[in-house]
Amino acid sequence: MASHIVGYPRMGPKRELKFALESFWDGKSSAEDLEKVATDLRASIWKQMADAGIKYIPSNTFSYYDQVLDTTAMLGAVPDRYSWTGGEINLSTYFSMARGNATVPAMEMTKWFDTNYHFIVPELAPSTKFSYSSHKAINEYKEAKALGVDTVPVLVGPVSYLLLSKAAKGVEKSFSPLSLLSSILPVYKEVIAELKAAGASWIQFDEPTLVKDLESHHLSAFSAAYSELESALSGLNVLVETYFADVPADSYKTLTSLSSVTAYGFDLERGTKTLELVKSGFPAGKYLFAGVVDGRNIWADDLAASLATLQSLEAVVGKDKLVISTSCSLMHTAVDLVNETKLDDEIKSWLAFAAQKVVEAYFSANAAALASRRSSPRVTNEEVQKAATALKGSDHRRATTVSARLDAQQKKLNLPILPTTTIGSFPQTVELRRVRREYKAKKISEEEYTNAIKEEISKVVKIQEELDIDVLVHGEPERNDMVEYFGEQLSGFTFTANGWVQSYGSRCVKPPIIYGDVSRPNPMTVFWSKMAQSMTARPMKGMLTGPVTILNWSFVRNDQPRFETCYQIALAIKKEVEDLEAGGIQVIQIDEAALREGLPLRKSEHAFYLDWAVHSFRITNCGVQDTTQIHTHMCYSNFNDIIQSIINMDADVITIENSRSDEKLLSVFREGVVYGAGIGPGVYDIHSPRIPSKEEIADRVNKMLAVLDTNILWVNPDCGLKTRKYAEVKPALTNMVEAAKQIRAELAKAQ
């Protein structure tokens, strides 16, 4: 049976691309140096797949930032503010769109469906002109061909590209990016023509929006697009790939009716209902790329289950038309298990990273390892399961209303109006990373490590006091990652040495692996938080990661429902919250950066997820006193459709991304949503090196005050500062504090 890989990790087994990108951005290496690293990585990936016997090997899935931005470059859809004058888009323009530059901000960044990967959102207008401006797809196809590998070039499909776009600032609200379909198809035709001329026999269009709830005019756009492309596609085999969820029946009908399409790719791991649609009717003579190898998790494939699924499909599709595939791109999993030399042998035998999943396409799963996992005593903790079961029957709300709690907290904290704070982390310097690395390698003693971290905390506290920030953070110098740090101290978790996964650009995360029941053996943050609070008279936030975010940013066990694991994590965090309060910490932030990310792609599944996710958050802090202020933080995503659930979390203060999305969040409040808790919509984008002026920040705050009460508004960046340099952070925070003080003075004068 032939096999197919939807896409593959880009960073390299040891994050080679990450370091090459950062060296280029810092001016330490040239574009040629960067391209050399990229070329070597691509060659290695193609060779690995060819050696494994994969028939349908993808190209053009490699990217310096993300595949949607690559498509924006291909189409020449560069916003005017980047002063692009045409021609082939260079790296300067490309990275300015992604990261901003000294004079203009970056484009909006948001989550890629329900993953922790991000993409740069295209900004389109009726006046947008499209032209073929990046030849990356054809160049990579030819590059692979020169190495003797015939690949399947992959493009983001035209309809999904437009459905993932947004209207540019200042455009009429009635404008829909989908209205530009006829304008972008000529560029797609040019790309297709070049690929055909170069000898491509297959082409893959990724159309993941087909798994969402689409309206009839959206489906009509798919029919129109692929009908218009039909003559250009003549002579090519065309695969339309979907992933991450079931394809709804109407979308399935539309997709399988496209006469220009040769093959259909479906995620049969997360899209089990699609399996029934295929069995009930599949077009004769077409190929089915069956996504039975999980591209989003690290557990070894269940050989028997996959074989049974494929055998049932053979009878429908025909053996010669059935292709075994990954459920989605393997970029969402770690690269290669071979690099994990220190991982527990038993747990390691249960796993498969991207390199192993390439081989899993030929069914080399280890049945003995699967049996070992099912029977291992280390997976189950009866006490934990009993405690989680006992949660049923209560909604775990705090006893008093948020307004009453805010009054009690203000009497104790005595904060000014528009209080300033940051989200948690401060820059992670080379020296700080060296200290953590040497401590982990046992090259320095615990005392030396503690003194070094104490010195860093003291520095961060002093900086914040000098800046006159109102509620401080300790900067998280002891943490490499906000999830990894907690997972290392919770039972039921294990960690890899090189299990990195791309989040955006050069940013990589190393998700923990949750293999068993979760509990907290010992306090995790209390020591550092108490130390930090002892250094200042100002309130010091205790910093925790919430249960839903720990869950969504981990590789989660697949032998029990996700909500059961989440409740176990919530109970562990609850103990930590109560220990922080007992230790004198008056403000505790429980980050739920990934709560929106986990929202199912289908609306019919939203209510169930939001119910247990919000409940999990409330469990963590239901036992604290009214005077203890509970904060939460949420990252880049679209929150407008879940604002009632955010209110239902019952946090005292929420800080939330706002600056990079053109203050989209504020539209909720303009439309009449009443929010009574404290709220800090981010006033500047920390994912860009650009330093915002005091005037720019003040303007943002004034826009917020137009829709939010003065007594609930906080002033803060929109995320943690760990990826930035102090040379960027200090002036940006200076301007933020000065803007807050200026507006306080203006408000006092107006009274």
From TrEMBL:
Active-site feature positions: H687
Cofactor: Zn(2+)
UniProt remark on cofactor binding: Binds 2 Zn(2+) ions per subunit.
Catalytic activity: 5-methyltetrahydropteroyltri-L-glutamate + L-homocysteine = tetrahydropteroyltri-L-glutamate + L-methionine
Span of domain Cobalamin-independent methionine synthase MetE N-terminal: 3-316
Positions of L-methionine binding: I423, G424, S425, E476, D591
First-tier enzyme category under EC: transferase
One GO term of the biological process aspect: methionine biosynthetic process
Metabolic or biological pathway: Amino-acid biosynthesis; L-methionine biosynthesis via de novo pathway; L-methionine from L-homocysteine (MetE route): step 1/1
Keywords, in A-Z order: Amino-acid biosynthesis, Metal-binding, Methionine biosynthesis, Methyltransferase, Transferase, Zinc
Pfam families: Meth_synt_1, Meth_synt_2
EC number: 2.1.1.14
GO terms assigned for molecular function: 5-methyltetrahydropteroyltriglutamate-homocysteine S-methyltransferase activity; zinc ion binding
All residue ranges annotated as the Cobalamin-independent methionine synthase MetE C-terminal/archaeal domain in the record: 418-741
Binding site for 5-methyltetrahydropteroyltri-L-glutamate: K18, N116, R507, C508, W553
Binding sites annotated in the UniProt record for Zn(2+): H633, C635, E657, C719
Residues annotated for L-homocysteine binding in this entry: I423, G424, S425, D591
Cited function: Catalyzes the transfer of a methyl group from 5-methyltetrahydrofolate to homocysteine resulting in methionine formation.
Assigned protein family: Belongs to the vitamin-B12 independent methionine synthase family.
HAMAP family in the cross-refs: Meth_synth
Name of this protein: 5-methyltetrahydropteroyltriglutamate--homocysteine S-methyltransferase
